[in-house]
Amino acid sequence: xxxxxxxxxxxxxxxxxxxxxxxxxxxxxxxxxxxxxxxxxxxxxxxxxxxxxxxxxxxxxxxxxxxxxxxxxxxxxxxxxxxxxxxxxxxxxxxxxxxxxxxxxxxxxxxxxxxxxxxxxxxxxxxxxxxxxxxxxxxxxxxxxxxxxxxxxxxxxxxxxxxxxxxxxxxxxxxxxxxxxxxxxxxxxxxxxxxxxxxxxxxxxxxxxxxxxxxxxxxxxxxxxxxxxxxxxxxxxxxxxxxxxxxxxxxxxxxxxxxxxxxxxxxxxxxxxxxxxxxxxxxxxxxxxxxxxxxxxxxxxxxxxxxxxxxxxxxxxxxxxxxxxxxxxxxxxxxxxxxxxxxxxxxxxxxxxxxxxxxxxxxxxxxxxxxxxxxxxxxxxxxxxxxxxxxxxxxxxxxxxxxxxxxxxxxxxxxxxxxxxxxxxxxxxxxxxxxxxxxxxxxxxxxxxxxxxxxxxxxxxxxx
Length: 464
Fold this sequence. Notes:
Blueprint: E1 6-10, H1 14-26, E2 31-33, H2 40-46, E3 49-55, H3 56-62, H4 66-72, E4 78-83, E5 98-102, H5 107-129, E6 138-139, E7 143-144, H6 148-161, E8 167-170, H7 177-187, E9 195-199, H8 205-213, H9 230-233, E10 238-242, H10 249-261, E11 263-265, E12 272-274, E13 278-283, H11 287-292, H12 298-304, E14 307-310, H13 321-336, E15 339-343, H14 345-352, H15 359-374, E16 376-379, H16 413-431, H17 436-442, H18 447-457
Parallel strand pairs: 1-2, 1-3, 3-4, 4-5, 8-13, 8-14, 9-10, 10-13, 15-16
Antiparallel strand pairs: 6-7, 11-12
Helix pairs in contact: 1-16, 6-7, 10-12, 13-15, 16-17, 17-18
């Protein structure tokens, strides 16, 4: 997930600097260097640097007072520092623009931090450019995604929000149907009024009518006073009817009347009450099939689906998984005061290859569980529950020297770069299940170029 700007690598150790630069270059990032520390701040401005990766002792040589150094840096720059445990600065600083990483430098952990820094930088740059503009990766701070299906969903929600038409949101369980409903409300001219959610499947059938329409005193046993229903509470606002497919036939008739006449009667009352409510319904069931089986009224279905919206399942927008993970990670770290730095590249690849039957809700629950159990450091495949590992594709990837770190005696840069390239090619083939055309597209290569590289390197994927 390369950032729009450039990454500056700062390290007096040329071998480490070249290794980091080569690694990130093969990940698709635009790398620059600052040979003269005196011109460091000019380089950041002139080269449009958005992320700086710096070795701690090198930073101290530039500016002994770390606090003063950060004051001199541009406010939108994200700084990733790495150093030894005795640097006394390897701890959360309270500054969300600074990330810390200990030596020996692990390149997978570094890449995970760069991905997090890139996401932070992207969001902050868009917010800085126009505080009133919508972040292209987020809608109303609730729905998150950069994939094409999500961008299309954003556009549709924004158009729908401008009207008062009834909306039917469909999608699998856990995809975020209520979040979409809230986004429609927040973008509408009703946003200053109530958004009232009702889960039709969670309320017993004999209580749902009273819950929706209210009741008058004495209308049934236990009705000791008049009570306003959800329709009345949502007057001038939005009523969200979740799991509408579970609503019983007698209530479907009463709901149809409200949609037709914009009026209802409380339980035990003969007096009709006018109401101005926008209705958004949602279901994970196929209402058309329920209509055919006569479990759902056809006329009500057409009344509800004036504007149908379908939320894509997570497996159809896998490119959003890292973005969602990083968002959940930041929230749960903050809520629980933990310091989990991120997910390793192998862990992210593993999760991107999982089918996610529980969709975004399942992913959110997993990240919360990992933050609780891990507490600090990076989450690796070994930390993940077994069911997430079963779908992994076994690929023989050339190991990096010293598990990604730089040996004390140095390293052969050409061999390391060759290993990085081999690893990326094999990972692309693994992700596309051996499809060379798609793998070449992931690597921004021509298919013929990829085939030539495979022959030259004598790389074999699967049973080829």
